[in-house]
């Protein structure tokens, strides 16, 4: 049987994969977006609050990255789907006196206009997007294949052969916390499980808030004196099978059955924790939990994302054995795996970082632009070699 061929196959249909599909679709109509789940944005991207908020702090390269990405992604969402972004602003509230002192020290280095408001600081740029709808818009022009597990991929001539069924001239892996498809040992990801809840209540909020958790603006429900508000997210580093908890699960399913390592007890505990933290920001009247979403966020060792071609560690060490002695070589001299790319490690800022990083990745693929060294996979390889020998 003939194998179907594509110029680009993207594995992972979260915000990273969908953003990559969007920018690639400007250059090619031969794109396949694959996900093992039943639809788009079913893992960490579906469990995200999808808040767009500034990173506060003194000057550093990660803050600069987030600031540039926030400016880019906010304008990008407004341009391609203005109905799916709510630019209502965010109030950032210090958690305690120590946090307040930090905020005061950050004031000279704020990248965005702000004003003091409600025991905190209001930033007009703060927004929230509809996670599923955004991904749907981004991926609307590409072919999609759901409920499909990529188990193997190998080089066949100049193409990648996926599950002995699908050919790809270029393969792009955007699978977040599950890095089972990436065989390089230097590629290190930490899974941080997050839980977000949606509530109905009689409380109406006109803007987003962030203190010990994030609290969204409210949407009025039709024909009812009730409002929908999102609260997120918890942060749990637990030992889980990364193949579970990737679909959005209803409150009833989780409460009755639990789900492997993410037990119903932990779900109830995290739900209560979120409600307490939300009430510390604003008093929520008559809250009723109507939905719970859980997913593993992918965080790298140094918190920076990982973008671009994978370094082939075996070939590189064969070519430059002196690296074992701590020698240094230029990034462009490291051997890479042809036509294999990643976009990963966006952590809890996926909706801020992903469109910006995807644009950078596609510019590298299409225009041979160089990626910033701080987001490329080169840095991880070099750290790994230094520790290994």
Automatic annotation (TrEMBL):
Keywords on record: Membrane, Oxidoreductase, Transmembrane, Transmembrane helix
Pfam (any one): DAO
InterPro entries to which the protein is assigned, alphabetical: FAD-dep_OxRdtase, FAD/NAD-bd_sf
Membrane keyword on record: yes
Signal sequence, start to end: none
Any one Gene Ontology cellular component term annotated for this protein: cytoplasm
Single Gene Ontology MF annotation: oxidoreductase activity
FAD dependent oxidoreductase domain span: 8-363
Transmembrane parts of this sequence: 6-24
Keyword Membrane (UniProt): yes
Descriptive protein name: D-amino-acid oxidase
């Amino acid at each position: 049987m003939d194998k179907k061929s594509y110029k680009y196959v993207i594995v992972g249909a979260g915000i990273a994969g969908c953003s990559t599909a969007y920018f690639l679709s400007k250059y090619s109509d031969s794109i396949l977006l694959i996900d093992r789940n039943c639809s788009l944005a079913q893992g960490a991207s579906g469990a995200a609050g999808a808040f767009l908020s500034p990173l506060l702090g003194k000057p550093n390269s990660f803050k600069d990255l987030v600031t540039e990405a926030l400016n880019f992604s906010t304008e990008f969402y407004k341009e391609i789907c203005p109905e799916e972004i709510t630019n209502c602003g965010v109030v950032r509230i210090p958690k305690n006196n120590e946090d307040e002192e930090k905020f005061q020290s950050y004031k000279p280095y704020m990248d965005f206009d702000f004003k003091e408001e409600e025991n905190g600081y209001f930033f007009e740029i703060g927004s929230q997007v509809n996670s599923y709808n955004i991904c749907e818009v981004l991926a609307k022009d590409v072919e999609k294949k759901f409920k499909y597990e990529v188990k193997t991929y190998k080089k066949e001539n100049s193409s990648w052969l996926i599950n002995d069924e699908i050919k790809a001239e270029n393969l792009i892996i955007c699978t977040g916390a599950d890095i089972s498809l990436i065989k390089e040992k230097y590629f290190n990801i930490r899974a941080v499980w997050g839980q977000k809840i949606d509530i109905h209540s009689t409380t109406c909020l006109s803007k987003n808030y962030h203190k010990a958790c994030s609290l969204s603006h409210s949407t009025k429900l039709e024909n009812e004196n009730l409002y929908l508000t999102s609260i997120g997210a918890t942060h749990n580093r637990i030992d889980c099978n990364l193949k579970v908890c990737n679909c959005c699960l209803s409150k009833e399913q989780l409460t009755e059955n639990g789900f492997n390592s993410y037990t119903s007890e932990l779900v109830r505990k995290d739900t209560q924790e979120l409600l307490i933290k939300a009430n510390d920001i604003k008093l929520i009247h008559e809250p009723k939990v109507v939905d719970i979403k859980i997913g593993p966020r992918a965080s790298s060792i140094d918190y920076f994302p990982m973008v671009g071609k994978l370094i082939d560690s075996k070939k590189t060490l064969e070519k430059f054995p002196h690296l074992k002695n701590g020698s240094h070589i230029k990034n462009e001299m490291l051997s890479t795996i042809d036509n294999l790319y990643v976009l990963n490690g966006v952590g809890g800022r996926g909706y801020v970082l992903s469109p910006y990083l995807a644009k950078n990745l596609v510019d590298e693929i299409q225009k041979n632009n160089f990626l910033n060294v701080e987001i490329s996979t080169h840095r991880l390889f070099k750290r790994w070699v230094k520790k290994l020998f």
